[in-house]
Amino acid sequence: xxxxxxxxxxxxxxxxxxxxxxxxxxxxxxVGRAPLPMIMPRPGWHEQPAVAWWEAALQALxxxxx
Length: 66
Known about the structure:
The protein is α+β, with helices and mostly antiparallel strands. The protein is built from one helix and three strands; from the N terminus they run βββα.
């Protein structure tokens, strides 16, 4: 594989964490995505454990780098 300059962006939303890798011309060259769990302990309550954000970010980055 040849070495090239790339830019990576990470977006963590309510339902998933996404990683996109772009080249310097702005073309997306890789994408990774990992779902985020939603815990509903009672009606009207929605929670996400912070460790799930970290794990989803790592998985999205791994998928984009694969």
